[in-house]
Design a protein that fits this description.
This protein is an alpha/beta fold. 32% of the residues lie in helices and 26% in strands. It folds into 2 domains: 4-205, P-loop containing nucleotide triphosphate hydrolases (Rossmann fold, 3-Layer(aba) Sandwich); 222-321, 2-Layer Sandwich (Hypothetical Protein Yjia, Chain: A,domain 2). Strands 3-2-4-1-5-6-7 form a 7-stranded parallel beta sheet, sandwiched between helices.
Length: 326
């Protein structure tokens, strides 16, 4: 969760999506829109046509290219160095945009904002925005795990190229997206046309902020899990949580199962605490902080969400129950 200093932290939006989905079109729209804000842009290239340089120049933006291939552990250092350099003149821009290659797993990008203390203190991961090609999505799922992972990590999804498919096909694509990640917000778009205030500086990665506006965001639903499929699982309880037991359990769980748990997040009610305890995780990285106060008379329910592959729902529920106050 964002710290109390979040007002001084620079918001970062990660744009991801499969090759040709429309994320560069979205990036160019952001840069050319008359929104009165200035963004620093980090583009990761891998055999893919990048930003139109003339457009970037006209928009008076600064573009930093990382041509080492996918943003992953081997080039995370480059991302950290670029961001640290930007922080020396952060008064010159309002936000940072990171466009990943279409073949990238966005997880390591998100992890960067957990692992480096300086980056974490001075920036705020605002949202992972995934652009999906409605016409080719099912074919992309068959080509590898990247398209599925991009959906799983998303806070906001642009279901793009909706004009190229029938209503029935669109419904099937959206149903598949929901089976992977039922918590992301979906916008249907053509040519990545969307009101930018719907995706920028929304605090979408800040779970506590989401719940202020959408209290039912983490409503427990049907747990639909199949071997090797990415799915989502939610657990809720009205019993208070022991924070030390939770941290110990979650730390051990992520060390063992972290590669398969793409995202984990939760709002926890700690016995006697006046504020929510907000937890966020990306693979094996985890972070937690105190959130907004509980309102008088409000039901203090704890809710935990996992999005990943090979989720053992029964085992996760037992582990979480062991963290509850007796």
């Amino acid at each position: 969760m964002a710290s109390p200093a979040s007002t001084t932290q620079v918001p970062v939006t990660v744009l991801t999506g499969y090759l040709g989905a429309g994320k560069t079109t979205l990036l160019n729209r952001i840069l050319s829109e008359q929104h009165g804000k200035k963004y620093a842009v980090i583009v990761n290239e891998f055999g893919e046509l990048g930003v139109d340089n003339d457009l970037v120049v006209n928009a008076d933006e600064e573009v930093f290219e990382m041509n080492n291939g996918c943003i992953c552990c081997t080039v995370r250092g480059d991302l950290i160095r670029i961001i640290e350099g930007l922080m020396k003149r952060k008064d010159k821009f309002d936000g940072i945009l990171v466009e990943t290659t279409g073949l990238a797993d966005p997880g390591p990008v998100a992890q960067t904002f957990f692992t480096d203390e300086d980056v974490r203190a001075r920036t705020r991961l605002d949202a992972i925005v995934t652009v999906i090609d409605a016409k080719h999505f099912f074919g992309q799922l068959e080509q590898g795990s990247e398209a599925e992972q991009q959906v799983a990590f998303a806070d906001v999804i642009l279901l793009n190229k909706t004009d190229l498919v029938s209503a029935d096909e669109l419904a099937k694509v959206e149903g598949k997206i929901r089976s992977i990640n039922r918590y992301a917000r979906i916008f249907r778009t053509e040519k990545s046309q969307i009101e930018l205030d719907a995706i920028l500086d929304k605090g979408a990665f800040d779970l506590g902020r989401i719940l202020e506006f959408e209290p039912d965001f983490l409503q427990s639903g049907h747990d639909h899990n199949h071997e090797d499929e990415v799915a989502s699982l939610s657990i809720s309880t009205d019993r208070p949580v022991d924070p030390e037991k939770f941290q110990k359990w979650m730390g051990a769980l992520l060390q063992i199962k972290g590669p398969d748990i793409f995202r984990s997040k939760g709002i926890l009610a700690i016995d006697g605490a006046p504020r929510r305890y907000v937890y966020q995780g990306v693979h094996m990285m985890m972070d937690s902080d105190w959130g907004s106060p509980w309102k008088d008379g409000e039901a203090r329910a704890s809710k935990l969400v996992f999005i990943g592959r090979n989720l053992d729902g029964d085992n996760l529920k037992r582990g979480f129950e062991d963290c509850l106050k007796k």
